[in-house]
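Hi L.,

You mentioned the student needs an example of a multi-chain input paired with its predicted structure. This one should do, with 378 residues in total across all chains.
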Amino acid sequence: MQLLKERILSEGRVDREDILKVDSFLNHQIDVTLLDELGREFAGRYENTGITKILTIEASGIAIACFTASHLHVPVIFAKKTESKNLDSDTYGTQVYSYTKDKYYRVRVSKRYLQQSDKVLIIDDFLANGKAVFGLKEIIEQAHAQLVGVGIVIEKGFQQGGQLLREQGIRVDSLAILKSISPGRIIFE
Amino acid sequence: MQLLKERILSEGRVDREDILKVDSFLNHQIDVTLLDELGREFAGRYENTGITKILTIEASGIAIACFTASHLHVPVIFAKKTESKNLDSDTYGTQVYSYTKDKYYRVRVSKRYLQQSDKVLIIDDFLANGKAVFGLKEIIEQAHAQLVGVGIVIEKGFQQGGQLLREQGIRVDSLAILKSISPGRIIFE
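Structure written out for the whole complex:
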């Protein structure tokens, strides 16, 4: 998606080997006008697939999930990472490794909000090794719901997540795929 | 706001003394149509105040902050709770106590995204003892920016956060204020 790629090129920063910072518009400061456009794009791609729920993971997936959901007129569920008094004890859940935080955490979704009849679109800001998406996929399977596709804002094409998902026959829509990044240099596939 | 109160009465659950669960529409599953309406309401109340940024805290403030920002046409910044390779080292920050998680955590905002010229609206899903809002207020002060007001979806009127903020002359707009909650019984002010 050209609009997104231009924004990555103008504002993205690669300070160290494999981390692209786009925190001026995507995952710290949020450009809501841009994200609404990205959400509209995802919604257009999935408009005739009968999506009933959008599933994401806190925290940086929430914004793009919400804007996509607005255009598809379906609810968002965001999987929770931490123990909280606000979450039901009766949950689907799994362990996920976070690359950017270098630790494992438990991801959970209340059983109230995922049913066997649900057709689910996973939305997230980044796809790298795919650990978060595979965790969400496992939660969808626990609920016996259907995973229809995965919408990603920025896929790191040089890491294996996208390939692993597509090899399993899972539809993955990435709005920008990075071929390589290094300080001062961002190349798309 | 009547629309919100009706939703709280029909779907809110009080399982134990002072915790209201509204995770069917606000902070786990998200009803994006409702939140867009709530965001429109906040935007209407602050439309002539020159807001330049909306500040919230991950994770459950992000959705309502984004919908409010869409109507005000300003960016959102969400303060981060955890260490991450994606966050600049040069940040404003403070310690905040989480009531629902019963622990202290560090809250940070990159110095890139808050300037002295910013007029900031804080948005969050809940206001209880006010610890999160006071933390965000401190970050705004560190940036020498201006706190214009605080928009809250649900204020627990029986806890002291709202009173403490208003006593300091801070404008607080809560769309629903709870007078008391107990299992099976929710009363608004």
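You could point out the following to them. The helical segments of chain B are 2-11, 32-45, 62-72, 131-142, 161-167. The radius of gyration of chain B is 16 Å.

Best wishes,
N.
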